[in-house]
# Entry
Amino acid sequence: MSGNITLTIIKPDAVANGHTGKIIDHIISAGYKVKAMKMIHMNDREAGGFYEVHKERPFFNDLVSFMTSGPCVPMVLEKDNAVADFRTLIGATNPADAAEGTIRNLYAKSIEANAIHGSDSDENALREAGYFFSELEMF
Ligand code: CMP
# Structure
């Protein structure tokens, strides 16, 4: 499975703004198969654990506050070259720099409320998929 999966989260801003359906359609239209999906509202421990690699960053507390501000939709996605192609599909972390037509260009408002997450490596994709989903929940 390594190399073929990525983990995404439709973030609280995009869910609150009613963009969940359009974003899922955008992802499926780009050739991804949904292997797992759910809606959850994370607490501080859950969001902090997900972003553990960023815990020394100055924006960590704000990031956790934002990610716990409402429900979000984590998904495991499958396609060849999943991680790299998904990062192209979503665009730059800061929506001001995101290419035309990318998900962040279309739906994100700021570097923090940036609509969607995508894993940055195959290794992290597997860790992140396992963080949200058990083997029984992946199809
Ligand atoms: P994401 O791809 O989910 O991974 C880490 C997140 O931290 C990133 O998206 C941004 O939402 C957030 N982030 C990264 N850099 C900054 C920053 N300079 N200020 C605030 N948030 C940031």
Observations:
- The CA atoms of residues 17 and 25 lie 16 Å apart.
- The pocket of adenosine-3',5'-cyclic-monophosphate is lined by residues 54, 59, 63, 93, 111-112, 114, 117 (CB under 6 Å).
- The two ends are 12 Å apart (CA to CA).
